[in-house]
From TrEMBL, chain B:
Entry-linked PROSITE patterns: SAM_OMT_I
Superkingdom: Eukaryota
Name the UniProt record assigns to this protein: catechol O-methyltransferase
Transmembrane segments: 6-25
PANTHER family from the UniProt entry: CATECHOL O-METHYLTRANSFERASE 1-RELATED, TRANSMEMBRANE O-METHYLTRANSFERASE
Single GO MF annotation: catechol O-methyltransferase activity
Reactions mediated catalytically: a catechol + S-adenosyl-L-methionine = a guaiacol + S-adenosyl-L-homocysteine + H(+)
KW Cell inner membrane (keyword) present: no
Annotated family: Belongs to the class I-like SAM-binding methyltransferase superfamily. Cation-dependent O-methyltransferase family.
Assigned GO CC terms: endoplasmic reticulum
Annotated localization: Endoplasmic reticulum
């Protein structure tokens, strides 16, 4: 293809339009000539010639065109015929338009002729194949045909102005043609394609009509794109059509401005496109910004949505912990570290002399003793100074409010999420249409892994089997006593297990207290970490035992899962509360110790002052190093330390189980399988499955511990953030690398709120002990932000008194008067009750409505079925009547012609039957005719062709009626 | 020194493992401990003991009674990895449906499956049986003769077979399933529509075999789920392959 010879005209959009319009016009002229039949016949020969030499022509025309855009288009046309097919429709539409116009504007005929002449000459050139020369010649001829300005905007505009009057007429027509086009789309495309080729070939002038048509076509395409979804085409066709239309639009949409505004319009269109693209990119960017989204999606595709739901839950938890961490870090730890008194300035901020030697040892630091204990990480380090630094930051108040705020925020978030989930679930009833639900909704469309898909498939089939079995079993009941006995037995075993684990923990905690009294250094690492170890181990192994026990019960797996979750929940809760109770004992011990220390302190101080200085100098002149000052046991720090240790050991156990239980096992199974006597992968050890419920529960309880301990150890949220972050990566990796998809892939959506409810319960249960300690136990006298106060919440009162104006505290004291608070509480309870009852009634109404809808649906179904039946019967009857009429006639005429007629539309056997019937029933015919009106009575129900039967009774025209009857069903369908 | 409390915390794990894998423990006890004990006590091999039991308890010439005696011995006295009555029913059904004229058995062991198959074969069909161990082979031969089948029906492997094999039953060393299958393919003994039935593909398991079958595309295959013979609670399966030939 002679690309080098292209005429170098401005590759402007205007020009493009020009040429495109030219094409259109030429083609339309052609069609005019073809359809209108008032053109010279010789043209047709030309046309055929053109068809034959299409490829050559294309090349030539391209050379002549000199417009890159158009050339591209032609190329594309060569490549993808499908696109042209699309264009064909436009062409067809235009054709018709043109056809109609043909009569109207004969004034344009001369111009068209010119056009055609030009076309002819061009064809001759094409045959010459010398593109360069042809180009030049064509130019010349163009000039001779007085169309030299065709390539410039101005000239075209002039033409447009000339034909303005015609345009207005065309506007009216547009509507009709578009509808015509719609219907013509499904018609045969073959011949149109040829015409289309021609159309594309002719790059001639553009008249306003053509512009108009182009506009129309663009509108058409837009409409097509919008309605494409509803078309009954195969997806392939849809896609290709869509692509074609979009290409078309892209190319020509910009061209549709008028004259001067065209460029602006093109620019505008381009900008909207850019903007849309930007928006889409931005959406993508936003998705990419969601942390771990891609990872979770990948896991979802491999393991189904239930495993993914765990990770989503983990991420959600991470977000909450981030906020808790921000609160404690920004409002408590950083201010204290920056503005509070530095380390070593006070006894509470100094490591005591006895511990100094080992304070930096790793073992001590790992236990959060030594320097870690005397740092911002724990409660005891904080000073009770009311305001610190140049900001006058109210440290104790901030500490208290952050403690309350974290809990309040957590409540808010959990409850809000629960409410949202409850809205989403929408309360579908599980009992009706069980099988339909299973049939149509059980596939998980996010699965992208063949193995998981296989598993899902298997699980669906098993669920079907189970459901069928269930249906069968719900009717008959087998040995109910045995199952009952087994269930009771299972629960008894579980209770024993729970009690045993609870007792073990209690025993261990008591023992650890004894060790603590003896001094930790005398005992081994195992003994010192006994509590955490035992708790973690029990938390790990008991669920397995429960799982084994639950096979006794023979529950449906969904119910079994809930029982299992409930039992694990009870176990964890029992362990946690045993731990807390033991901790309470320890707190009491510490408080007794504190009393003694307090007494000793006074003695010590007295001795100090007495021994060194005369009594009258009150200021302590002797500077005792703060490390030497005796101090109380500070139970708050102890509690914080315990929780931190618990979290650390919990985390460690989780990770180690992950590494050993999953990774090591997977490695062993994978590589020992080459030299083992049975199949390790499919048989006994196998790969592990991801235990969603256990992991979720672990997460929930971990969070509960955070909530419980965060008040006494501000570092806990930070630790938890770290832990969650690591476990996100570690678990993602472990799942992808060493787990296999579950055999029963559960749908996640159902249990989401179940987990949330658990979280809420845990939140409540974990804030309970924290609140109890805050409210009832007086803080230590020499450590923490509340030291010296009788209760921790006194800090609020103090702030009210000293930092707020007097009237405010007065108002507050009035407001906190029980006489005001009680009615307020009562009002709240009433409001809650009211809201709940209204929501309940709404729910009932919803259910009622749903039922009604169902009923109506069924009714409609029945009705339509009945109608269809009736229509069919009517039809049958009408047909019978018709045949009888025909037969009668044939009998009357006694000619074979009638029989032939009947044979055209009906099977011969039927005809035979009717024929026989008719022949036999000739004497009855009068009777039949008498009956006919009665049988016909229902026919008008079908409305569409109420009178179609009428001619059937005229014995003269049997064929016509037959044809009508046969067409009737299709009409009805439309 | 690990404290007793920590050791106690492992108790649930131990209990769980015991309960979950009890069938495997039973299998280990019956198939290994009892066998070793009996070998030492009687000086006879397991197969010989089984044959003695069959001799004393079964009616000669009656295959059904011999099979029943075997089942009795395997489930009550000791354990021998025969095909067993439940999976045997599947085998019977397949043989009845196929009615093959030439059957090849790999791994006769003590003749249980040979008797079982010979009993279901149509008239004029031949069963070729292969056993690796000499002592087991003699016992198998004795059992087969005891059941009343002669050389016309059941033959040793020494004969060179020229026709294609209609039915192959594999129940020998699980590692050999795959190489033997490939050998069969290579030798051209398999014709279109030949059926291959492989026992114990899930529990002792022949993963490579299954993987090959899945991938090769030469076979139409399915797995009959069942439990291990004579032991409840261990899942096992038989793979049924139909050779499609090279397309």
């Amino acid at each position: 293809m002679p690309r080098g010879n292209l005429i170098t005209s401005e590759s402007d959009i205007a020009i493009t339009v020009d040429n495109a319009g030219d094409e259109d016009e030429v083609s339309s002229c052609y069609e005019e000539h073809e359809w209108g039949k008032n053109r010279v016949k010789g043209r047709e020969k030309e046309r055929e010639k053109k068809k034959r030499g299409n490829a050559r022509k294309k090349g030539a025309s391209r050379a002549g065109r000199g417009d890159e855009e158009l050339e591209e288009r032609a190329e594309r046309g060569e490549k993808g015929r499908r696109r042209r097919k699309r264009d064909n429709h436009d062409g067809k539409g235009r054709e018709r338009d043109e056809e109609e116009q043909a009569e109207e504007k004969s004034g344009r005929a001369a111009k068209n002729k010119k056009n055609l002449k030009n076309e002819r000459t061009r064809k001759m050139e094409q045959e010459e194949r010398d593109t360069e020369e042809g180009d030049a010649k064509r130019k010349k001829k163009n000039e001779s045909a007085k169309r030299e300005e065709k390539k410039e905007d101005g000239g075209k505009r002039a033409v447009k102005e000339k034909a303005n009057a015609v345009k207005t007429k065309k506007h009216k027509k547009k509507v009709e043609t578009s509808s015509e086009q719609e219907s013509s789309e499904e018609e045969d495309v073959e011949e149109e394609e040829e015409e289309e080729k021609e159309k594309e070939l002719r790059p001639e002038s553009l008249s306003p009509e053509e512009l108009e048509k182009l506009k129309e076509a663009v509108d058409e395409k837009k409409k097509l794109i919008q309605t494409l979804r509803g078309k009954p085409w195969p997806m392939k066709k849809k896609l290709s059509t869509l692509r074609e239309s979009q290409e078309f639009l892209e190319k020509y949409e910009g061209a549709l401005g008028k004259g001067k505004g065209r460029r602006l319009y093109a620019y505008k269109v381009m900008m909207t496109k850019k903007w849309m693209k930007f928006q889409r990119d931005f959406e993508n960017f936003k998705t990419a910004c969601i942390p771990w989204e891609m990872k979770i999606k990948e896991i979802e595709s491999h393991f189904g949505s239930s495993v993914a739901s765990y990770f989503i839950f983990l991420r959600w938890m991470y977000g909450i912990n981030m906020i808790l961490f921000g609160l404690t870090f920004g409002l408590v730890m950083v201010p204290e570290a920056l503005m509070g008194r530095p380390y070593g300035s006070m006894p509470r901020k100094t490591v005591p002399r006895a511990d100094e030697a080992s304070a930096m040892d790793f073992a001590v630091l790992w236990d959060f003793g030594g320097y870690a204990q005397y740092s911002v990480l724990f409660y005891g380090y904080y000073n009770n100074q009311r305001a610190i630094g140049w900001l006058k930051f109210r440290m104790p108040l901030s500490y208290f409010l952050v403690g309350v705020g974290t809990v309040a925020y957590s409540y808010m978030v959990v409850i809000r999420t629960m409410a949202r989930n409850a809205n989403e679930s929408g309360g579908g009833d599980d009992n009706s249409f069980n099988f339909s639900w299973k049939m149509f909704t059980s596939w998980d469309y996010l699965i992208g892994n063949p193995e998981t898909a296989d598993n899902k498939f298997a699980s669906i089939t098993t669920s079907f089997k189970e459901a069928i079995l269930e249906e069968q079993e719900s009717r008959k009941d087998d040995n109910i006593h045995l199952t009952r006995f087994l269930r009771v037995l299972a629960n008894f075993l579980v209770m024993c297990c729970l009690a045993g684990s609870g007792y073990l923990i209690y025993f261990v905690v008591r023992r650890s207290q004894k060790f603590a009294l003896d001094g930790l250094d005398n005992h081994s690492w195992w003994e010192r970490n006994e509590v955490n170890m035992v708790m973690s181990l029990l938390g790990m192994f008991c669920p397995m035992l429960f799982d084994v026990i639950s096979t006794l019960e023979n529950y449906h797996p969904r119910i079994a899962l809930q029982w299992q979750l409930g039992r694990i929940f009870a176990l964890f809760l029992g362990n946690l509360y045993t731990f807390i109770i033991a901790l309470m004992d320890e707190i009491n011990l510490k408080r007794k110790e504190e009393e003694i220390v307090k007494f000793n302190m006074t003695v010590w101080e007295a001795s100090l002052y007495n021994g060194t200085v005369p009594e009258n100098s009150t200021a302590p002149p002797v500077t005792i190093h703060p490390a030497d000052v005796p101090r109380g046991p500070c139970w708050e720090t102890m509690v914080g330390q315990e929780f931190v240790r618990l979290i650390i050991s919990d985390t460690m156990t989780t990770y180690i189980t992950l590494l050993i239980g999953d990774f090591l096992r997977a490695v062993l199974v994978r590589f020992l399988n080459y030299c083992w006597c049975w199949d390790l992968e499919a048989g006994f050890p196998s790969y592990s499955e991801f235990d969603v419920s256990g992991n979720v529960l672990g997460l929930i309880f971990n969070q509960g511990m955070i909530w419980m301990g965060a008040f006494y150890a501000p570092c806990l949220p930070a630790l938890n953030v770290l832990r969650l972050h690591v476990s996100m990566y570690l678990q993602c990796w472990a799942v992808m690398c060493c787990n296999v998809p579950q055999e029963r892939v559960f749908k996640a959506s159902g249990s989401n709120n179940f987990y949330m409810a658990m979280l809420l319960v845990i939140l409540f249960l974990s804030t309970l002990p924290a609140i109890y300690t805050i409210v009832t136990i007086p803080p230590s006298f020499d450590c923490g932000p509340f030291s010296g106060k009788s209760r921790m919440f006194d800090v609020i009162q103090e702030t009210l008194e000293s930092d707020f104006p007097a009237w405010f505290s007065k108002v507050f004291s009035y407001a906190s008067n029980p006489g005001l608070v009680l009615p307020f509480l009562l009002l709240m309870v009433l409001a809650i009750y009211y809201l709940q009852s209204t929501s309940k009634s709404f729910k009932e109404a919803n259910v009622e409505l749903k039922k009604k809808l169902q009923m109506q649906n069924e009714e409609n179904k029945k009705k339509s079925k009945r109608a269809a039946l009736k229509a069919a019967m009517d039809l049958e009857e009408a047909r019978k009547a018709m045949t009888q009429a025909a037969e009668q006639q044939s009998n009357n005429n006694a000619s074979p012609q009638a029989q032939k007629d009947g044979g055209e539309n009906r099977s011969s056997s039927q005809r035979l039957h009717h024929g026989k019937n008719g022949r036999n029933a000739t004497p009855l015919l009068t009777d039949q005719e008498g009956q006919l009106p009665a049988t016909r009575a229902p026919v008008p129900r079908t409305y569409h062709h109420g009178n179609h039967g009428a001619p059937g009774y005229l014995p003269g025209i049997p064929r016509q009626t037959e044809a009508r009857v046969h067409r009737a069903p299709s009409l009805q369908r439309h | 020194m690990v404290s007793p409390a920590i050791a106690l915390a492992f108790l649930p794990l131990v209990v769980t493992l015991i309960i979950r894998y009890r069938y495997y423990f039973v299998l280990f006890y019956r198939a290994f401990l009892v066998r070793v004990w009996q070998d030492c006590a009687t000086g006879l091999s397991r197969e010989e003991r089984a044959f003695q039991y069959v001799l004393t308890n079964a009616t000669p010439g009656d295959p059904d009674s011999i099979l029943e005696a075997f089942d009795q011995w395997c489930s009550k006295v000791e354990f021998i990895s025969n095909i067993g009555p439940k999976k045997g029913k599947i085998l019977d059904r397949l043989l009845m449906e196929q009615s093959p004229m030439t059957v090849l058995e790999l791994g006769a062991h003590c003749g249980y499956s040979a008797v079982r198959m010979a009993r279901c074969l149509p008239l004029g069909a031949r069963l070729y049986s292969v056993e690796m161990d000499q002592r087991n082979a003699t016992i198998a031969e004795k059992v087969i003769r005891l059941a009343g089948f002669d050389d016309d029906t059941v033959r040793g492997p020494s004969l060179k077979m020229h026709c294609t094999v209609d039915f192959v039953f594999m129940d020998h060393w699980k590692k050999c399933y795959l190489p033997d299958l490939q050998l069969l393919e290579g030798s051209g003994l398999l014709g279109k529509g030949s059926m291959i039935l492989a026992d114990n593909v899930l529990f002792p398991g022949a993963p490579n075999f299954l993987r090959y079958v899945r991938k090769s595309g030469l076979y139409e295959w399915r797995i009959h789920q069942a439990t291990l013979e004579y032991i409840r609670g261990i899942r096992d399966g038989m793979a049924e392959l139909v050779y499609q030939g090279i397309k």
